[in-house]
């Protein structure tokens, strides 16, 4: 059915998890809020609560686990119909990722190489990944770094020295901090 909820946000206070939304139809006054852990596969592991005459919902923070991603959906009810839900994801509390990304190097050129990595699995993120930082260092030089957005999973390092061994590693960061993966070495070509 039609999208009645235009926007929604969630935030956490010291005691509570708060969800607020804006509805396009004023006559809709009843909603169902549903929440569950993103990695929960059992439908009976979902919780829900009925909300009347309000466009916000509060729950005790103790009902949520830290470092776990939750899906929260709000379903507008009007008459005997249910409109399309509006869904968002949230973490009640973040900590730095449990592991960093593994760097994979393509075939190096004389002055460049493409570094690739895979996303960290959801159960190891402990928060929303905000960016990745690629650290690289020639054998006897100083360490340099480049930072890219969280949707970027490969990066071309340019202006490298020819015929030089480099060490590279990648750090994944969220709001709580960053975790680096294992370092990898590669050597640029002579010609």
From TrEMBL:
<dbReference type="Pfam" id="PF00041">
    <property type="entry name" value="fn3"/>
</dbReference>
<comment type="similarity">
    <text>Belongs to the type I cytokine receptor family. Type 2 subfamily.</text>
</comment>
<keyword id="KW-1133">Transmembrane helix</keyword>
<keyword id="KW-0677">Repeat</keyword>
<dbReference type="InterPro" id="IPR003961">
    <property type="entry name" value="FN3_dom"/>
</dbReference>
<keyword id="KW-0812">Transmembrane</keyword>
<protein>
    <submittedName>
        <fullName>Interleukin-31 receptor subunit alpha</fullName>
    </submittedName>
</protein>
<dbReference type="InterPro" id="IPR013783">
    <property type="entry name" value="Ig-like_fold"/>
</dbReference>
<feature type="domain" description="Fibronectin type-III">
    <location>
        <begin position="97"/>
        <end position="191"/>
    </location>
</feature>
<dbReference type="InterPro" id="IPR052672">
    <property type="entry name" value="Type1_Cytokine_Rcpt_Type2"/>
</dbReference>
<keyword id="KW-0675">Receptor</keyword>
<dbReference type="GO" id="GO:0005886">
    <property type="term" value="C:plasma membrane"/>
</dbReference>
<keyword id="KW-0732">Signal</keyword>
<dbReference type="InterPro" id="IPR036116">
    <property type="entry name" value="FN3_sf"/>
</dbReference>
<keyword id="KW-0472">Membrane</keyword>
<keyword id="KW-0325">Glycoprotein</keyword>
């Amino acid at each position: 059915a039609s999208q009645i909820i235009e926007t929604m946000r969630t935030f956490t206070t010291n005691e509570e998890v708060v969800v607020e939304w804006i509805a396009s139809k004023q006559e809709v006054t009843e909603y169902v809020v549903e929440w569950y852990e993103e990695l929960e596969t059992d439908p009976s592991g979902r919780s829900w609560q009925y909300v009347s005459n309000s466009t916000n919902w509060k729950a005790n923070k103790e009902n949520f686990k830290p470092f776990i991603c939750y899906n929260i959906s709000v379903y507008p009810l009007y008459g005997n119909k249910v409109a399309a839900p509006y869904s968002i994801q949230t973490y009640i509390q973040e900590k730095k990722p449990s592991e960093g990304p593994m760097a994979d190097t393509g075939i190096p050129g004389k002055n460049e190489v493409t570094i690739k990595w895979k996303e960290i699995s959801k159960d190891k993120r402990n928060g929303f990944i905000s960016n990745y930082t690629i650290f690289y260092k020639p054998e006897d030089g100083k360490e340099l770094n480049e930072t890219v957005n969280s949707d970027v999973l490969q990066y071309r390092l340019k202006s490298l020295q020819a015929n030089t061994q480099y060490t590279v590693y990648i750090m994944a960061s969220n709001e709580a901090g960053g975790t680096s993966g294992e370092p990898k070495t590669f050597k640029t070509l002579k010609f």
